């Protein structure tokens, strides 16, 4: 079962390797939820890295009401009308040229 469906059914811990006997369940579930925030279909809905760091390292309340299905999630029940995951994704591009710095050893 895909991770998003497990989340919707409240069964995220089923994603954990069954060989792991002891682990901090609350932390693992939190990390999985942060991963869902990072994989939102619309780029504008994804958190900045500084926000991700805060979500992972502090006891910040996660606003799960803002979560939507990940960008590449496809419901198997709509196989005849599957939409490309790119159709609903907004891309943000910068007109500023990027530069790459190459380091050379001394």
From TrEMBL:
Sorted alphabetically, which keywords does the UniProt record give? ATP-binding, Kinase, Nucleotide-binding, Transferase
The question of whether Kinase is a record keyword is answered with yes
Start-end of Low complexity biased regions: 76-95
GO terms for MF: ATP binding; kinase activity
InterPro entries in the record, alphabetically? CR_Ser/Thr_kinase (IPR052059)
Q: For bias kind Polar residues, which ranges apply?
A: 96-106
Q: Which PANTHER family match?
A: CYSTEINE-RICH RECEPTOR-LIKE PROTEIN KINASE 3
Region described as Disordered:
67-106
Is the keyword ATP-binding assigned to this protein?
yes
Originating species: Vigna mungo
How is this protein named in the record?
Uncharacterized protein
User: From what superkingdom does this record's organism come?
Assistant: Eukaryota
């Amino acid at each position: 079962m895909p991770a998003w469906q497990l989340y919707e059914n409240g069964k995220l811990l089923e994603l954990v390797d069954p060989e792991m006997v002891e682990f901090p369940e609350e932390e693992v579930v939190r990390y999985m939820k942060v991963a869902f925030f990072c994989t939102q279909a619309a780029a504008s809905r994804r958190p900045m890295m500084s926000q991700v760091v805060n979500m992972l390292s502090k006891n910040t309340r996660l606003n799960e009401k803002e979560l939507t299905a990940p960008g590449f999630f496809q419901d198997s029940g709509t196989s005849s009308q599957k939409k490309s995951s790119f159709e609903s994704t907004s891309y943000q591009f910068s007109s500023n040229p990027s530069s790459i710095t190459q380091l050379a050893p001394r």
